[in-house]
Amino acid sequence: MTDSIATFMTDDHQRCDQLLAACEQAVSGGDWKRLAEQATVFSKALIGHFDMEEQVLFPELVAISPWASGPTGMMTMEHGQMRALVEELNEAVDEQDADACLGILETLHLVIQQHNSKEEGILYPMAEESLGDQTTKILNRLQAG
Amino acid sequence: MMGTGGLSLDQAPPIDIPARFFLTAPLFAIAAGLLLAWQGPTLLVSRWMPGALAATHLIAIGYLGLIMCGALLQMLPVVAGAAVPAVRLVGTATHLLLTVGAAGLAWGLAGSGPTLIRVGAGAAALGFLVFVIPVGIALVRARGAPGTLLALRTAALALAVTVALGLLLVAVLQGWIRVAEHTRWVDTHAAWGLMGWVGLLVVGVAVQVLPMFYVTPTYPAPMRRWFAPAVLVGVGAASAAWIMGADLVGQAVFGTIALGFIGFAFITLRLISLRERPRLDPTLLHWWAAMLSLCGAALAWTFAAPPTLIGVLLLVGVGVGLPAGMLFKILPFLTWFHLQHRQLGSGRFDLRIPHMGSLLSTRWARVQFGLHLLALALLAGSLWVPVLARPAGIALALSSLVLLLLLIGVARTYRRFAALLRPAPSRAGPQT
Ligand code: HEM
């Protein structure tokens, strides 16, 4: 296991990217049962990631550096946008609407990418710097998540 | 302390700024196609035909220039975390001047005389100038993805040189100054424009966007770090040698740069094949066609094929195709993004914002790509079979018309939803 918060969180981003790609693969294959499973796995992973940040990482960061509440608030708001898209995706999967699934996955993918680049470029390095001495404790909590 | 500027959501310019660049640009590609359809095979007889020079600048300034400037205004704050100063004013002025300039210069070069050339060239140059200065300021201030930034900085520099050389050529055409071996100066202007400005922007965008859009591996570090400055230095050295008559040196360096671009194209195709997202969407199809055109152009140059073939492959294969492919993603995403923000402001959470697939039809985007390929094939073919020239022009105009209609569709959906998502009247302040 890694001993860096940034690496841990970035790896989780990559896992979500792969799971989203797997959903697209399932849509293209036309296998609705598999898509339903993949979509569930993907939603769980993505929402789980948001929860880790909103319940563990962001509060810890703000507790140490109160001025971080602006950026983390922004990130939480973007999580809200993505949660809404995930909901839309699950509805489209239930309705077996392939075009809608692809369009929503495409939108979600781009939102996730620009969101992640901000977290990986700014927020995670900030967290590493501020939370350096609590890394082990926080990583344990994130992994328990 | 680390800057948090990059996290701000309201750094992006208002959507109408990039949108007006994107919605005007296809008109110029349509005009280029119609010009070819009208003039027929004579346009492509040689690179010096008035029609060819006009079509070149319709595409280079009217289409490519507009799209690239619009996209840069949009993307700089996001990529580089640096806002462009006075973005509304800069955007408005650049858009107007480039539109007038491209039309005037092309019209003048097509044979309508020196006054139009002068006015058009002046307007276009001024348009690029009011663009390059504030963007230069933003780029100097910028911090962010180093590979991308480097390519964008070098591309901006190359644009400045291209425009300066273009003005010099105009002065020669007007008889204000004389240069020995005029052709070599034109070659140099074309090299800075095509290899420097267009080529390096493609590199900058690819390095930033392909890994992000398709989840591919990143470009090799030496390519990200050294390619753009090497091309810039190379084009500088090669053009100096070329103008001074050191033919061998000039050709050797240009050849090396061409090889470098072939390498870039192959790496790009390889990365695309390693992507994690399986879909072969129309944007990817355009990347694929553009990279093959790039290789084709470099090969054509190596084997001393007619210059018109190189021009067609670079200007239409890369220059017309790739931006179209990028717009398929950029405009729908921007639209979604801005509507989303309006929704937050209006509190109308009962409305569902259309996702990208319902903003721009992937099926029609495929049709657009098909027409583009057809135009490219007919254009290349027409260099040997002249009767293909008119159909090629029509295909080019049609593919750009489909692009325009798709973009208009996105803009109309934006309008419709934006009207529904008016900001909620503030509870505290007075109502307006
Ligand atoms: C304000 C901007 C510009 C002006 C005033 C301008 C002007 C000119 C002029 C006067 C010529 C030569 C005509 C002749 O002597 O026969 C020319 C050729 C050319 N320009 Fe531009 N230009 C401008 C921007 C650009 C840009 C941005 C591009 C790039 C991508 C470009 C690409 C070319 C090419 C490829 C040719 C050569 C066509 C051939 O092979 O004959 N120009 N330009």
Automatic annotation (TrEMBL), chain A:
| Gene Ontology cellular-component annotations | plasma membrane
InterPro entries per the UniProt record, alphabetical: Hemerythrin-like (IPR012312)
Q: Which organism is it from?
A: Thiocapsa roseopersicina
**What taxonomic ancestry is recorded?**
Bacteria, Pseudomonadati, Pseudomonadota, Gammaproteobacteria, Chromatiales
Protein known as:
Hemerythrin-like domain-containing protein
Signal sequence bounds: none
The Hemerythrin-like domain is annotated at 6-127
Q: Which Pfam families match?
A: Hemerythrin
From TrEMBL, chain B:
Which keywords appear in this protein's UniProt record, sorted alphabetically? Membrane, Transmembrane, Transmembrane helix
Residue stretches spanning the membrane: 21-40, 52-73, 85-110, 116-140, 152-177, 189-214, 226-246, 252-272, 284-304, 310-339, 369-387, 393-414
Q: Which domain of life is it from?
A: Bacteria
This one is known as Uncharacterized protein
